[in-house]
What does this fold into?
Amino acid sequence: MSNIKHYKWADEDFGYNTGKAEFKGGKTLSCFTPEGGSAEALELAASILDIDLAEAGYLYNESTGEYEYVEEEPDEIPQMGGV
It folds into this structure.
């Protein structure tokens, strides 16, 4: 029986302060903390928080290997009525 403990974390600053580690018998076996804002950090945070990156506005740029955040623009801008 393996007593390896797996630990993953991500905080409210999406794609930053995220990582994963493995421990056994009080010793760290591995620890991975990707660079904040990197594709690896965003993918890890998304998996931990169960977020679909595309639905959240992150599009993968194959030429850079990173995600880019794209804000949706409203389809229609409401018109203010005058008298």
Q: What stands out?
A: The first strand starts at residue 5 and ends at 9.
